[in-house]
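Working notes for the structural subgroup meeting. M.R. asked for a predicted model of this chain before we commit to crystallization trials. I am recording the input and output together here so anyone reviewing the notebook later can reproduce the run.

Input as submitted:
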Amino acid sequence: MYARKLNVMPSSVGCAGEIKLRRLLDFLQDTAALAVENREGTPGELMGRGYAWVLLRYELEVTGRLPGMDESITIETRHTPNDGLHTLRVFRVFNEANRAETLVMAKTSWVLIDLAAGRPVRAGQHLPEIFTDVADDPPIDPDFTPIPKLSKSDETGFSTTLFPVRFHDLDANGHVNNAVYFEWAFEATPLDLPAWSVREMRSEFRVSAKLGDAIAVRVGEMPPDTDVPEGARAFVYEMLDARGGENGEKSRPLARFAAVWTPLVTPGALREASLRETNS
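Returned structure, recorded in token form:
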């Protein structure tokens, strides 16, 4: 288990006073890199050895609330091999003033890529040192919740938003950083975003987008009888190469997402309620 303490600074929060989703994902990714730095090296050193990690699956759940401005938080993370090819990593985010209260949980699945060959390799064989401290850790559930498909019979209910891939969307490998896809899904959601907060977001990544690509994000709302909390709204997202047309008849699929949203409660009110419960 590796833990990292952080303060949520003003540059990391949005207009509602809670941390921006992309900034939170950056914090998680950086914490994962620091957790294995003394074994596999820094991300730059890993690339120098000819390898890079590629994200396949992501499940993020806001079990309490998103951290707010000026809040001191801790991110805990641990990892374990799954089937030899995939590596699982989980994260827990909590407030330093109430360590028992979990704010955010996340589970991810990664594969190690041989950059020269351009294909996945078994991390246990190529980077055996990163698994030297996981034998006594509790197992990580390898199953991820399936993401529903958009129903072709209800295409009139879709909304589509186009996003160009910008230079600053790219990571060190020249591919779009995984947090950018979450930002696209966030921005394409047909809600009055300042009045809503994301509670859950799941993703499946297939093909990496690159500079010059144009991405069509198609969004459809799940039926009212979907198993989501009362008052919440759930959406499914498909990210496609827009060169196949906005309707996606010949588009290259890049990623799929699902998300649950609830009406926003200000982080300050939630923090005060949490601290009152802790002190009572």
